[in-house]
Amino acid sequence: MxxxxxxxxxxxxxxxxxxxxxxxxxxxPEAFLAGAAQRQAQVTRLVRRNIELLRSGLFPTLDHLFSAxxxxxxxxxxxSFQLYDGRTELDVGLFCHIRQxxxxxxxxxxxxPAMIRELYWLGMGRNALCSKLVGFELPDVERYxxxxxxxxxxxxAYLKYYDEIEDTETRGYILRAKANISLGQFKSPSEKxxxxxxTLQVLQDRDYQKKAPGLPWDxxxxxxxxxxxxxxxxxxxxxxxxxxxxxxxxxAYIVYQRRFQEAERLHKQxxxxxxFAYHAIExxxxxxxxxxxxxxxxxxxxxxxxxxxxxDGMYVMISLPAFYSQYLQQYPExxxxxxxxxxxxxxxxxxxxxxxxxQAEDGQLFLYLRQLSFTFVETGGVSYGEFLQKLLLRFAPxxxxxxxxxxxxxxxxxxxxxxxxxGFFDDAGFLQAIQDPAEKRREVxxxxxxxxxxxxxxxxxxxxxxxxxxxxxxxxESEMARLHVIAGxxxxxxxxxxRRYAPAALGHHAWYDGSRGYPDAYRRLECPCRQMVxxxxxxxxxxxxSSSTQIYNGEALTYEEAVQSAVxxxxxxxxxxxTARLRDAGTARLLRRAMEEGRRAALLQTRGPADPPAPALP
Length: 618
Ligand SMILES: [Fe+2]
Ligand SMILES: [Fe+2]
Fold this sequence. Notes:
Radius of gyration: 26 Å
Strand content: under 5%
Structural class: mainly alpha
Low-confidence stretches: none
Shape: globular
CATH topology of one domain: Hypothetical protein af1432
Helix content: 55-70%
CATH architecture of one domain: Orthogonal Bundle
Bound molecules: fe (ii) ion
Oligomer: single chain
Distance between the termini: 56 Å
């Protein structure tokens, strides 16, 4: 590999080590803060250096790929497999960028085996990116699924030239691509079932097998059955054709029965994951009703053990409750008799997460908790806001720091505004209704803090973009990052305790005059609490442009520069009522101090449960 490639990879490894940990918790506060600042500075240095390496090393190579020699191309491929190899992921975004360039080259050269190979790998990379988009409705992420699927579909189309293509490797890519068309989300299970069935037919065809005896056919077939069986762990669609049911049952039998028999032979419980998937299939195929499925699920849940931090243990403690909640979310009439059970389940989860040793969190725990964040049913016991705060604090500390800073900044700005104009936020009906001035003031300030704390909570759904990228984003990644406003609005608006923060999540990147920004779904003049959304938008922008995380967008400013730019954007990006205040140097300073103190307090909170608790939210 080239020296720039080696250095880039070494930086990525160092970045992962730095960003996965905070300084030792037992350090006294000042030393802890200094340690964290030092880590942050190192992270920023690494990211800057990586951007430089790509600009001086990789991008010129990609620009002249057609004239690159065989050795250079081989080095590029080796480098890309270090970034992602189908299992371990260091930088999938960059992997896709390189494979896209290699695909264009193969097309230019009309090199068919190379095209098929590159299509397959680009599809794999895109699938890895798609699998990071947790909890979205299909229409929000469909374009990414389609982009991924197109790669596999095009590669699989070469099946009609199977006889002409002599080498086994390329034949293997075609068949793998064929199987992978059914990855990702679909509008309905039937659509997926049809594709998987089609693949099974090809894979079981003796003719194809005979022509490429070197391929691992049994494994291909088993994995495809697994894909079929896993297609309906949860689905909104309950009605399936008799043929769909028969197909799924056959695969389920092949995949799970084997595991159950094995467990029986060893006198062990079958893995909960298989047991649940099997029960879910029985339910969807109409063997029994939802009540029975839920009690079977309860049986599995009761087998969970608080001290078991293995992947299976985490599955039972967190992922199963997420599925359980999802059924209840869809059929709320089933909630009342299960309310107490559900509360006890959620409390058990919070205790489990608190007690989980930090080293054991391998991403799996966080992934399961994110699933639960989308299906959480709030019944009045464990508050959803509390649950989200715990998630941010424990698994996305940098995001929590930013959110708390924005919350404190928003609170400070609101305090100033209220001094001159106590009715400023009366556009929000629930604030206008408060008669007592002191109470109203308190409510506005709490509201400002909550809006700040939760405005970016949707980033949990695309967190890898923020926590695992050690360079500037590519265009597609910036686009994906924008989904966080939709995800945030969805999470917050669906539960009573967080509903009122949803407009801040949706609208904080929209422009005041509506001329730019995102998403289109936010219309300022239709928003009943637009004054507060305006506050969060301004404070968020000041905080994020002047903190190092902005490096992904490539536009880091000093705080003074950020204030100046905000004032210049008066009436276009930001509310003139707010920028008028920012013109006052004293106000700008006060705001900065509030944000810094917010960051500092949040950082100390990350040291663990022994520290002061997160601010209580109404
Ligand atoms: Fe944001
Ligand atoms: Fe933000």
